[in-house]
Structures are given as structure tokens and as C-alpha cells.
Design brief:
The complex is a heterodimer of chains A (about 450) and B (about 450). Chain A is an alpha/beta fold. Chain A has 21 helices and 13 strands. The chains are: A alpha/beta (about 450), B alpha+beta (about 450).
């Protein structure tokens, strides 16, 4: 999710890089046979949205693969718009072998275009054995498994400053209502309770998704994500009402509604973990830890900790997730070697390589939790694995971009309006339905 | 012209007429040959895309189904497009007018000063900054947080120089614990108190580090009893750091709130006022018997002034136009200045000799003589403003993007930036074209006129 921010610049540079980089990569047809160094002399090209530290860490995984098989690997950063970049590469006859797809919608689009190879039986067996079935479903289109989820994100974590909560004398809450109550106590102590990044619409969709998943349950969540259920449904109005309890309480939001709308995601983390704290808690995914650590020098686990997004009403605690799935392109020059890479990525061994360096969660059940370098990451990973089948993918990432992923339009904009004035959930639900109907139709 | 000359000079013989016709035809072929590359380029780069867009605007998002005028009706039903049309109209009216006016004034003034070139250079400098960079600069300058946005920092600085800030802007009372909030932000005791009573007024929401230096625990003061003709009390922070305190009770570690204004009110009239001591205690001595209300006036809690919401939904377009002015003023000034330097000096001098003052010279001589230049500048800017995109896209924050949108941004958003409906986008493009055409025609006419 964080990567959305840097769309303009990184997108352009990555595009340039991508166009230049994959010119090489031809090779001999793959000879059958396993064993070590079987893929010597071949180059597997992998495209993905990662750049910077994520790219560096993924490269370590690729290096481990190369070590094992003798194949050369090459990673190409696509920038934000994977589908456009990969589409143009396929048309140009220069397709990468493996693509790391960051959204369910994109995976479905690729499969629909007939670009993808179904996963090999080895990988399929590994997925069946090592992954919760939900990951298999999110990687499948019409019953065929195309995508292997290698990296996952946990978006049901509320991050807090232990010092602030201690000052207020409250403990991490166990229910949504307790969370609001704890928030009011924090605000009594003189610090606003929550810092909400209202300027970035996607953080608001994540808030909504957590509340909705917990309050309405996974079945309705799936139906709403597929737009089989209308947004005017009572469950949506209820979830908005629940969320509105928090949004309309000026005591709970740092800077009130106006302040929240003027805060972007990094700003919201700064308000809790920066040098001059203005709030005690900030909700977003596990990547908050990265910002708190890298930008504000907080020690994760000591100066910054998290509690799971608490359950709403009588519901289960939500686990909203996201992830990058590896897919193999039909048109890749070395797609067989690419398939071998996926077989490797499905092993706990591959996940352990990145888990040790941090900034990574694996949906692979077989990965030993001891491989994670940081305690807090281990806890998030544990929560993700134990949630098993109740994990749900970020709903706005499943929706068409016009509805769930456009600055100043669709769900982002409507939820921002809702944050500005949360008094009429019913009208908000109606607006959401209008926008969704328009976007899903296209 | 040469043709007419030869016609009158040569005798009208049949052979020469035929030869001339052939020569003319050959001339036309040669001319066509010369024009051909330009025509091809124009056709491929301008005419074809325009026609394609027009055609595309009659098809749906996927480009396969003919939908007739649906995109156009959809366009005017969509509130976002209507807003874009409205904003574009504001832009087209306001920006070129202001720019031409500013440019004219600056050009006339600059002519009269000594360091004219340096000044012109300075004003022209923003033209060298790309729209993207300028957009990022102004996005920061307009930021609502006075710690980030320089404009609001100035606004707050000026405001605070004239008005003191309240000492407890964040303080508030818990509901249902004896204090009720008035419409003016004040707090008063609900029940009437009378002399001889001691009241404890608990507030929350003040961080320990925001307490004034020297604040002392309120516990001892709360225990004191009042004399028969005095009203005593304590204003304290009803929150024990680390939790554990009892709500509505002055606990041992809870701090008093010093320098708080307190008033004793009887029958709606303030009869006594005081400020609290370091331990939050206050005392109204020598009161007549009767019911009183103790009030903490709203001035204690006044919210700090946090400047103007430049990029809020109501105000967002004018600040963006401001950024546009910053970039283009130099351009307008230089162009008008060039026109100004070619003005016949003698007519200006003559007017001055006849006793016209500078204002009259400016109004009656300079402006009318400059009118052609001013029109060119104005029309060029109109065309330029129609396609303004970068500034709007970058300066407007996400939540108000739709309130700031103009036709060009809307067109992009609808076709590529998430909407993925290039049919509707083409329709918007056609609308934009139709709006630009009158200005183009006008400019072309003017060019022709000035050539003749």
C-alpha cells in the first residue's frame, strides 16, 4: 500500500529501467531433469513492483535460488502499474518469465487475457500442503491455480506508543468499544487518541474493511468485494455507523476531522512515533513498523508496539491482508525455469531467506516462526497464520481501480467525505453504491 | 501581385494564355509538393487524432460498442464534470484577466525604474521552473499546518502578535461531572453554589508537559474550607498520570491548573473574578449570601488560531490560480513591455505637453495603443489556461481533488487515472476542443489582420 504514494516518480524511472533491462535473457530450451545446477546458463527474469529495500531483499531470495539451481536471475522493477508494463512487454515480445502480482484484480485480469501458465503439480501440491486454502482461492481463477502468494501483508494491526498508553493508564483493548473507551482515556490524558491519515483515501478503506469484516462476517465481505451485495445493504450502513462512532468524536482524532483530512500516511505515523507525539495510536498494516523504525528511529517492540484490530460487536477479530503472488507468463523465454523458481518460492526455505532480513510476512504455514528476525514481526506472522481461512484480501484492491484505487474519486473520496461529516452513514452507503455500480459495470 | 502586373503589360494572345495557364498549373504542383510534407505531418499528428477522438467519443469504455451520444449525456450528468466545467470557466475568466492586468501594470512601472532589466529578469524567473516543481512548492506553501505551510505560519504569526493565545486550548470537562459547557466555550457549575461552599472543578485533556511551570498538586487546597462570606474552590486536572485516579475527585497526585480565569456570576451578572493560584485554588471573599454560579470563561479555552484552510474544499481554486499567476506574470510583463517599447513616444510626449497627467496618459494613450498586444496576450493565456493540468493535479490534496478539478484533469482521470473509460474521456476532449476553437479562430484572424 505504501508504494502507491510514489507513483509518479518511481513509476517513470522504473518504466525506463524495465524497458532497457530485459533486452537480454535469451537462452537454450530447457532440458528436462532435476538435480543441482540443472538450470545452468539460463536466465529467469522476474518483474515486480518492489524497489529499494524490498527489491534488495528479494534479490537475496533469487540469489539463493541461483545458488541452488545454477540459473541466473534478473529482477525488473515495474513501478506501480504492473499490468500496463507487463502488457506492453508481452506485446513487444519481451515478456518476463515470472511476475510478482500485487493485486487480486490484476491476477484475474492476467488470467483472463490468457497470459498465465497454470502452476506445476509440484507447486500445486506445496500450496495445498503449506498454505491455508484461502490463499489458494485468491491465487486461482475459475478453479485453476495460477498464483503463488509469496509475500503477505497484515493490515489488521493498530500501532501504539507504549509510553502514551502507560501515561494514560490503559491497556491494549480487546474489543472495538474498549478501544474507543481506551481512546477517550488517552485523550483525557492530554494526547489525542488516534492519528488518522485521511488525506490518503486508502487508509480509510482499510479502516472500513476491518470494521466490516469483523461486524458483517467473511461471507458478506466476499459478496461485497465481488459487488454481489449492494453497498446500500444494512451491513454496510452498520459498519459505517460503527466507524462513524470513532470518526465523529473530535476527542479521538488528532486535530479533529479537519486535521485528519490534512494528514497523509507518513504524517499519521509521525504523529504517533515522531519527535513530538500528538496521538497515542495509529491504525495501518504491518508496514507502519518500517516507517516508525526507519524514519523516526523507534525500536519496534519497545517504543512502538501493536495490538490486533479488535473485534466489533460479537464478531471475530478481523484479519485483512494483502500480498504479492508469483505467476508464470506463457510468453516468457524461460518459463520452465520460471516454474522452477516458483517451486522454490513455495518452500519454507525460500521464505526464510527474506524473513530473516525483515519487512516480510509469509503465508506459508511451514515456515518456522523462529526465522523472523524481529519479535513483533513474528507476532504478526503468527496472527496471520493462525487466522488461517478467515484471512481476507484487501477489498479495495479487489475492486476496479476507478472505485477502490483512485485519488479523489470512488471509495477513497466518499470515505474522505464521510470522515469530514460522519453524520449520515445511509447517504454515504448510497453514494458508495452509485460509484461502485458505475465502476463494476465497466 | 506579379500576375496582375504582367497581365496588364502583355498583349492578350491565345498562345500566351495557354502557356501561362500551364505555368500556373506547374507552379501549383510545385507548391503542393512543397506543402505536402507539412500537410502529411499535420494530418498525421493533428487532424487524424482529432477525428479519431471524435469517433472514439461515440463508443463505450471498451471501444467495441457504438453508444451514440451516450458519453455526452453521461458527461453532463456527472457532477464531477459539471464541477470541472465550472472551475474551468472560473480559470478562463479570472486567470488571463488578472495576468494581463498585472503584466500591464508591471510593464508600465518597470519602464520607469532604474534596474529595469534586473527586475524583469527576476519576475521572469518562475517561467524557468517546471509546473511540477512549482506545484510541489506551492503545495507546501499552502499547507494548512502552520509548522509546514509558510502562508499559514505568517497568518498565525500575525494573528498571535495581536491576540494572546489561551493557556488551556485542549482542556475540557468530562460530561456529567458538575460542569456544563456554554455556547461560547465557557464552563460553569450547573448547581448554584453559595458563600461558604468549596467547589472542585475538574478538567481533563491537558498533557502533563503542557502544564504551566510551577503548577502544584491541588489536593491540599481542595481540603481547605471556606469562611461564611467567601466562596472557595480549586480548578484541577482530573487525571492521574498512569491512570488509577478516581474521576470527579481530587486525588493526591492531581495537579492544579494555575492562571485560570474564574468568575462568580449571580443572576447572569459577573460580580467577582479572579485567577487561580499555582495549586489551582481561587477565592471570592466578601460575597453577599445567595445563589451563585462559578464560571470558567471561554477565553481560557479558546482554540489557537490555525490559519486559513487554503486548500480546503471551499477555497482551493483561487490558491491554485495564485500559483499560476506566480509562474506567468513575468511572461505577460515581458510581452507587454515589448509592445510598450515600440509605442510612438511623440504621442505620449504630446499628451504630456498638453497637460495630461500620468494617469490620463496611461488611460487614454498607452492602453488604447497597446490594445492589440494586450488582446494577443489575453487570448494566448486563455488557450493556455484551458489546458491547465499539472498545477491542479499536484496542488489539490486527495480529498479536495474533485473540488479543484478542471476539464483537462477530468479528461485524464476519466480515461487513464482510474476511470479507464476512454470513450467518456474522448467526449471530454472534444468538449475541450470546442471550447478552445473560438479563441484559436480569434487569434488566427488577428494574425491575418496584422499581416495585411
Amino acid at each position: 500500500m505504501m508504494r502507491r504514494r510514489t507513483t509518479l516518480l518511481s513509476g517513470c524511472t522504473a518504466l525506463v529501467l524495465a524497458l532497457g533491462a530485459t533486452a537480454c535473457g535469451g537462452g537454450d530450451p530447457v532440458s528436462a531433469g532435476g538435480g543441482d545446477k540443472a538450470l545452468g546458463g539460463q536466465t529467469v527474469t522476474v518483474a515486480g513492483v518492489w524497489s529499494g529495500a524490498e527489491q534488495k531483499n528479494f534479490q537475496k531470495v533469487l540469489d539463493a535460488f541461483a545458488e541452488k539451481t545454477g540459473a541466473k536471475t534478473q529482477f525488473v522493477s515495474t513501478g506501480d502499474n504492473v499490468s500496463t508494463v507487463v502488457g506492453s512487454k508481452i506485446e513487444g515480445g519481451n515478456a518476463p518469465d515470472v511476475v510478482m502480482v500485487p493485486q487480486v484484480g490484476v491476477l484475474q485480469q492476467f488470467a483472463g487475457n490468457g497470459w498465465l501458465k497454470p502452476l506445476s503439480s509440484t507447486t500445486q501440491k506445496a500450496v495445498a500442503a503449506n498454505y491455508a486454502p484461502v490463499w489458494k482461492d485468491y491465487g486461482s481463477v475459475k478453479g485453476t491455480l495460477y498464483g503463488l502468494y509469496f509475500k503477505a501483508a497484515h493490515k489488521s494491526t493498530v500501532w501504539y506508543s507504549p509510553a502514551a498508553l502507560e501515561q494514560a493508564g490503559v491497556h491494549p483493548p480487546k474489543t472495538y468499544d474498549e478501544m474507543l473507551k481506551a481512546g477517550r482515556t488517552v485523550s483525557d490524558s492530554g494526547l489525542a487518541a488516534f492519528s488518522v491519515a485521511g488525506q490518503d483515501g486508502w487508509t480509510l478503506t482499510d479502516w472500513f474493511e476491518n470494521v466490516y469484516l469483523s461486524q458483517a462476517g467473511p461471507e458478506k465481505y466476499d459478496a461485497l468485494a465481488a459487488h454481489e451485495l449492494k453497498w446500500t445493504d444494512q451491513s454496510v450502513v452498520d459498519a459505517l455507523t460503527t466507524l462513524g462512532k470513532l470518526f465523529q468524536d473530535k476527542q479521538l482524532l488528532a486535530g479533529g476531522q479537519k486535521g485528519a483530512l490534512n494528514t497523509d500516511f507518513p504524517g499519521s505515523v509521525e504523529k504517533v512515533f515522531g519527535p513530538e507525539p500528538e496521538a497515542g495510536m495509529v491504525y495501518e498494516g504491518d508496514f507502519v513498523a518500517g516507517v516508525a523504525k526507519d524514519q523516526f528511529g523507534r525500536k519496534i517492540g519497545e517504543d512502538a508496539d501493536f495490538f490486533a484490530f479488535p473485534p466489533v460487536g460479537g464478531g471475530e477479530a478481523p484479519v485483512v491482508s494483502g500480498g504479492d503472488a508469483a505467476v508464470v507468463l506463457k510468453d516468457g523465454k524461460n518459463s520452465k525455469a520460471g516454474m522452477a523458481l516458483l517451486e522454490y518460492l513455495a518452500t519454507p526455505e525460500a521464505a526464510a531467506v527474506w524473513a530473516g532480513t525483515g519487512g516480510f510476512l509469509s503465508p506459508n504455514k511451514k515456515l518456522d516462526l523462529a526465522s523472523y528476525g524481529v519479535d513483533v514481526t513474528r507476532t504478526t506472522a503468527k496472527s496471520l497464520i493462525t487466522a488461517g481461512d478467515s484471512v481476507r484480501f484487501d477489498m479495495s484492491d479487489q475492486a476496479p481501480a476507478a472505485f477502490g484505487g483512485t485519488k479523489g474519486a470512488g471509495e477513497w473520496k466518499i470515505l474522505q467525505d464521510f470522515l469530514r461529516d460522519p453524520s449520515d452513514p445511509k447517504a454515504t452507503a448510497a453514494q458508495l453504491e452509485t460509484a461502485a455500480a458505475k465502476a463494476y459495470k465497466g | 501581385m506579379t500576375a496582375t502586373l504582367t497581365k496588364t503589360a502583355a498583349p492578350p494572345a491565345a498562345a500566351t494564355v495557354a502557356r501561362k495557364r500551364r505555368a500556373r498549373r506547374r507552379g501549383r504542383t510545385v507548391a503542393l509538393l512543397f506543402v505536402l510534407p507539412a500537410l502529411l505531418l499535420l494530418g498525421a499528428l493533428v487532424v487524424y487524432p482529432v477525428l479519431f477522438s471524435v469517433g472514439r467519443s461515440f463508443f463505450d469504455a471498451s471501444g467495441t460498442r457504438f453508444v451514440g451520444g451516450d458519453n455526452y449525456t453521461e458527461m453532463f450528468r456527472d457532477p464531477a464534470t459539471l464541477k470541472a466545467v465550472r472551475n474551468t470557466a472560473i480559470w478562463v475568466v479570472v486567470a488571463p484577466t488578472l495576468l494581463t492586468g498585472l503584466g500591464l501594470i508591471l510593464a508600465v512601472l518597470v519602464e520607469k525604474i532604474r534596474w529595469a532589466t534586473a527586475f524583469k529578469l527576476l519576475l521572469f524567473m518562475p517561467m524557468a521552473v517546471s509546473f511540477l516543481a512549482a506545484g510541489i512548492i506551492f503545495r507546501l506553501a499552502y499547507d494548512e499546518d502552520p509548522d509546514k505551510g509558510v502562508l499559514n505560519a505568517a497568518a498565525v504569526g500575525v494573528h498571535d502578535a495581536f491576540q494572546d493565545t489561551a493557556s488551556y486550548p485542549t482542556a475540557r470537562a468530562r460530561d456529567g461531572e458538575g460542569l456544563t459547557r456554554g455556547a461560547d466555550g465557557s464552563y460553569r457549575t450547573g448547581t448554584s453554589v453559595s458563600p461558604g461552599d468549596t467547589v472542585a472543578l475538574g478538567l481533563v485533556g491537558v498533557a502533563p508537559k503542557e502544564l504551566p511551570a510551577g503548577a502544584e498538586p491541588a489536593y491540599p487546597a481542595a481540603a481547605r474550607t471556606a469562611g461564611p462570606d467567601e466562596l472557595r474552590g480549586v480548578v484541577y486536572l482530573d487525571f492521574t498520570p498512569g491512570g488509577g485516579g478516581k474521576q470527579g475527585v481530587v486525588d493526591r497526585r492531581e495537579s492544579g491548573l494555575p492562571k485560570m480565569e474564574v468568575e462568580a456570576v449571580r443572576d447572569g451578572k459577573t460580580v467577582a473574578s479572579t485567577t487561580t493560584a499555582a495549586d489551582g485554588s481561587f477565592r471570592f471573599p466578601g460575597l453577599e449570601t445567595g445563589p451563585y454560579t462559578v464560571t470558567l470563561p471561554g477565553s481560557n479555552f479558546a482554540q489557537p488560531y490555525d490559519g486559513v484552510s487554503w486548500l480546503g474544499p471551499a477555497l482551493v481554486t483561487p490558491p491554485i490560480i495564485g500559483a499560476y499567476l506566480w509562474i506567468w506574470t513575468g511572461f505577460a510583463m515581458v510581452l507587454i513591455g515589448a509592445g510598450l517599447s515600440t509605442l510612438p513616444r511623440d504621442s505620449l510626449e504630446a499628451a504630456r505637453m498638453d497637460g495630461a497627467n500620468e494617469w490620463q496618459v496611461f488611460r487614454r494613450i498607452t492602453v488604447p495603443l497597446l490594445a492589440p498586444v494586450l488582446t494577443v496576450v489575453f487570448v494566448t493565456l486563455v488557450i493556455n489556461v484551458m489546458k491547465v493540468f499539472d498545477l491542479v493535479y499536484i496542488i489539490a490534496p486527495g480529498p479536495v481533488q474533485e473540488d479543484a478539478t478542471v476539464l483537462a484533469t477530468q479528461m485524464w482521470l476519466v480515461s487513464f487515472g482510474g476511470g479507464n473509460d476512454q470513450g467518456l474521456g474522448s467526449a471530454l476532449g472534444v468538449l475541450l476542443l470546442l471550447l478552445v476553437i473560438p479563441a484559436m479562430v480569434f487569434n488566427v484572424r488577428r494574425f491575418r489582420g496584422s499581416q495585411r
